Amino acid sequence: MARDQSGRIQVITNPQALPASCAICGIAPGQSNSNAGGPVGGQEMEFADFGLQFEFYGAFYLCERCVFELADNFGCASPTLTNSLMEQVRYLNEQNAGLKNQLKELERALGDHVLAGLNITVDSNGNILSSDTVSATNS
User: Fold this and answer.
1) Is the preceding omega at residue 19 within 30 degrees of 0, hence cis?
2) 31 — phi, psi (to 5°)?
3) Residue 86 pLDDT greater than 90, yes or no
4) What is the DSSP track for 38-93?
């Protein structure tokens, strides 16, 4: 997913301004600690840069782990859950498209029979269950 780097909060991998570490857990680039859990998925740790400097502290950064924890506290979905749900949506969209095509084919095939004066009932697998002649008053 492409990131908008024109906003107020930037995502960076190497904080430059001191203290150059997460304001919550203290992890710095290249470090790993048990509280932060290290980089996500073996990737380089990313930090949120708010563009803020505080007197007697320095630059305010949050590591991705702390951002995810904060987001979770606000009820946001984790990246893992989001990716899983997106994959499920893609799969269901593919299935839906296939079923729509099958339905069009069945409607086309049944349409010819209905026009010929037949009433055909099919099951969910497309098997013909019954076939009756439609009377002139029902059409």
Assistant:
1) yes
2) -90, 160
3) yes
4) SSGGGSPP-EEEEEEEETTTEEEEEEHHHHHHHHHHTTPPPHHHHHHHHHHHHHHH
Q: What percent of the chain has pLDDT over 90?
A: 32
> Which conformational region is residue 20 in: left (phi greater than 0), alpha (psi within -120 to 50 degrees), or beta?
left
Q: List 22's β-bridge partners, or say none.
A: 61
What was the pLDDT predicted at 5? 66
- Over residues 48-62, the pLDDT tens digits come to 999 888 888 889 999
How far apart (Å, rounded) are the C-alpha atoms in residues 89 and 132?
Answer: 40
Tokens encoding 24: 């919550």
pTM score: 0.54
The one-character DSSP state at 96 is H
Indicate the SS3 state at residue 133.
strand
Q: 5 in helix, strand or coil?
A: coil
Residue 121 · residue 127 · CB < 8 Å: no
Closest CA to 15 of 5, 23, 7: 23
The DSSP code for 135 is: P
